[in-house]
Amino acid sequence: MRHFTRFCRRIASRDHVATLRHKIRRDDGYTTETIVVTALLALLAIGALGVITSKVLGRANGIDLG
């Protein structure tokens, strides 16, 4: 009976290890996550450029040349 128990444990542990390896290799959602983060960073960059542009143009229009 002891050999059967060891055999069952060995099979169970192999199945567990195989399942873990499969889960580690899966990338489900990684590309979606990357796209979302990239889009958010792009929106932040566009917003920052808008603010900087308006500040620079405001200062440039405020210069008295004359």
Number of helical segments? 2
Which class of secondary structure composition applies to the elements? mainly alpha
Oligomer: single chain
Uncertain segments: none
Spatial separation of the terminal alpha carbons: 102 Å
Helix content: over 70%
Query: What is the N-to-C succession of helices and strands?
Result: HH
- Percentage of β-strand residues: under 5%
Tell me the major beta sheet.
Answer: none
Radius of gyration: 30 Å
What is the averaged pLDDT score? 82
> Based on CA inertia axes, which overall geometry fits?
rod-shaped
Strand tally: 0
Topology:
Layout (H helix, E strand, L loop, with lengths): L1 H24 L4 H32 L5
Question: Can you give a write-up of this model?
Answer:
By secondary structure, this protein is mainly α. It has two helices and no strands. The chain has helices spanning 2-25, 30-61. The longest helix is centred in the last third of the chain and has 32 residues, at 30-61. The radius of gyration is 30 Å and the shape is rod-shaped.
